[in-house]
Design goal:
Number of strands: 26
Shape: globular
Helix content: 10-25%
C-alpha cells in the first residue's frame, strides 16, 4: 500500500506542475528495554508509518509529510509541498545522477518479533544483575535496543529503491565508587542483524567486563598533562574521524564556507599513510545502500594517501561544488528533508602491528574509545576536544598502568598529518542507541578504523 501511495503522490506532483519530485514512504519500529539496578524501568515499542514528498517548483524546493495514509491526505500533502515551493525565494539546482532501481535487504536469520517479550526482558535483567554484582559497583543500567526500518523512495527522474534492515544491540553502564571518587564506564555492541546477534554473545560477561573496568578505573590516577605521543584504538579513531574530520567533508558545510576544507581539494591534509573513505555497505557499520534522495551510496574516497580527493554530497551540494553525487543525502525519517550526512566514515588499514607501535612510542599514552563521552568540534577552525575512556600509559615500550578517562584536544589537520603508523587491523562499529545529530536530525552512522600512532596530542590530566 505504501508503494502505491508513493507512486500516486508522484503523479499528483507532476500534474500540479512540479519539475521534479521525490517521494519517501517509511515503516519503522523501535523497541527499547531498560533495566536500572535490577529493576525493569522501561519496555517500549514505537511504530511510525508515513510519507514525505519534496518537490522542485519554479526552481525552489517545497517539502511536506504526513502519517495519514489515505488518498485525500496524500493529495493535500503534495499540495502543501507545492505551496511551500511557491513561497520560497531560494533557487535550487540538483546535480545529475543515474537513476537506479532495486530492492536491498540486510541479512538476518531471526526476526525480533518472533522472540517472546519474556525472553528479551529476562536476558537484559540477567545482564544487569551480573554487572551490578561486581564489588564496588554502586549503579548499573542495561539496555536492549531493536530497530526495524523499511523505506521506499521513488522520484520523477526514474529512481525506485526499496530497503529493509534490522539493527540490534545491548548497552551497559556501570558506576564505581571508591574513597569518594566516582567513575562511569559504558559500552555497547550493535549489529545490522536479527536476534541471532543477541543469542551468540554472553551479555552477562559483557556487563561484568564493563563493571570490572569501572572498578579498576576509579582507583586509577590521571595521566600527566601536556603534549604527548599517543596510540589511538579503532573506536577512538572512529570518534575523532567522524566528529572532527567527517563533518568538515560534508558538502553543504563546504559550500557554505563553514568547513576548514573549503577550496582544498588536491591538497595534502594528512600523512601519506592515511586514506579515509565513506562507505554505506562496510561490514560492521550501518546499512545504507542508497540515500533518501534515491541515489545509490557509492564508496567515496575522501582522503587518498594524505591528499583530499572529494567531499560527501547530496544532489544540491554536488551541483554547487561541481562534484559527483556521492549518495549522502540522508533524512532521519519521512518527516525530514534529506541533508548531507556521513554513512560509515573510517580510515583504511596499514601494515603495523599494535605491539610494534607500542615499542615505537616508548613513552606516551594508549587512548581507548570504550567509555568515551564525546566532545566538542569546530569544523570551521578544525579543532576538537574529546573525552576518551579509561586508557593506559605506555612506558619503556610496553603498555603500562590504567589511567582514568582523559580529555584530548588538538587540530584535526595537524593530528592527521602527524600520523606516523597505521595498524593492519580494522574495526567498524555502529549503534542502535544513538546516532549523529545535525540540523535537528539524528541518523544512524558507523565509524572506526585501525589503530594509529599520532606524533602529538594535547592531553588533560594532572
Amino acid at each position: 500500500m505504501l508503494k502505491d501511495l508513493a507512486q500516486n503522490a508522484l503523479k499528483i506532483a507532476e500534474v500540479l506542475g512540479a519539475s521534479y519530485a521525490e517521494v519517501r514512504t517509511q515503516l519503522i519500529s523501535y523497541e527499547l528495554i531498560t533495566v536500572d539496578n535490577s529493576v525493569l524501568r522501561e519496555f517500549s515499542r514505537t511504530y511510525r508509518a508515513g510519507l514525505g514528498i519534496r518537490v522542485l517548483y519554479n526552481g525552489s524546493f517545497g517539502f511536506s509529510s504526513t502519517n495519514e495514509l489515505d488518498k485525500d491526505s496524500i493529495r493535500e500533502t503534495v499540495s502543501r509541498a507545492i505551496t511551500a515551493a511557491r513561497v520560497s525565494k531560494t533557487t535550487r539546482t540538483l546535480g545529475e545522477r543515474e537513476p537506479s532501481r532495486g530492492r536491498y535487504v540486510a541479512q538476518w536469520k531471526i526476526r525480533s518479533e518472533d522472540v517472546s517479550d519474556d525472553v528479551k526482558a529476562e536476558l537484559i535483567i540477567r545482564a544487569n544483575k551480573a554487572g551490578l554484582g561486581i564489588d564496588g559497583i554502586k549503579s548499573s543500567v542495561s539496555r536492549l535496543g531493536i530497530q526495524h526500518d523499511w523505506r521506499y523512495v521513488v522520484s520523477s527522474d526514474g529512481a525506485e529503491l526499496e530497503y529493509e534492515s534490522y539493527l540490534t544491540g545491548v548497552a551497559h553502564l556501570s558506576v564505581a565508587v571508591e574513597s569518594g571518587s566516582m567513575e562511569r564506564v559504558s559500552n555497547q555492541e550493535s549489529s545490522v542483524s536479527g536476534w541471532e546477534f543477541i543469542e551468540k554473545k554472553d551479555w552477562e560477561e559483557f556487563a561484568r567486563n564493563v563493571s570490572e573496568l569501572a572498578r579498576e578505573a576509579v582507583k586509577a590516577p590521571l595521566p600527566p598533562a601536556g603534549r604527548t605521543r599517543v596510540i589511538a584504538d579503532p573506536e577512538m579513531v572512529g570518534l575523532i574521524l567522524h566528529e572532527a574530520f567527517g563533518h568538515a567533508t560534508e558538502g553543504d558545510l563546504v559550500a557554505s564556507g563553514t568547513s576548514i576544507l573549503k577550496n582544498r581539494l588536491g591538497e595534502e591534509v594528512a600523512s601519506p599513510l592515511v586514506t579515509i573513505v565513506d562507505d554505506g555497505l562496510i561490514e560492521g557499520g550501518y546499512y545504507v545502500p542508497f540515500d533518501d534522495e534515491g541515489s545509490l551510496k557509492k564508496r567515496t574516497v575522501v582522503v587518498e594517501e594524505g591528499l583530499l580527493r572529494s567531499f560527501l554530497t547530496n544532489r544540491e551540494s554536488a551541483a554547487r561544488l561541481e562534484l559527483p553525487v556521492s549518495g549522502n543525502g540522508r533524512a532521519q525519517d519521512f518527516t525530514h528533508i534529506p541533508i548531507v550526512r556521513q554513512t560509515n566514515f573510517f580510515m583504511l588499514p596499514g601494515d603495523w602491528g599494535l605491539e610494534e607501535m607500542v615499542k615505537e612510542v616508548k613513552e606516551g599514552l594508549y587512548l581507548v574509545g570504550k567509555g568515551s563521552s564525546g566532545g566538542q568540534v569546530d569544523t570551521g577552525a578544525g579543532t576538537f576536544t574529546f573525552s576518551a575512556g579509561p586508557s593506559r600509559l605506555i612506558r619503556n615500550g610496553e603498555l603500562g598502568g590504567l589511567v582514568r578517562g582523559v580529555v584530548v584536544s588538538g587540530s584535526i589537520l595537524e593530528t592527521l598529518k602527524g600520523v606516523e603508523a597505521v595498524g593492519k587491523d580494522l574495526r567498524i562499529t555502529t549503534s542502535v542507541f544513538g546516532g549523529c545529530g545535525k540540523d535537528s536530525q539524528i541518523v544512524r552512522v558507523g565509524d572506526g578504523g585501525p589503530h594509529i600512532l599520532v606524533r602529538e596530542l594535547i592531553v588533560g590530566g594532572e
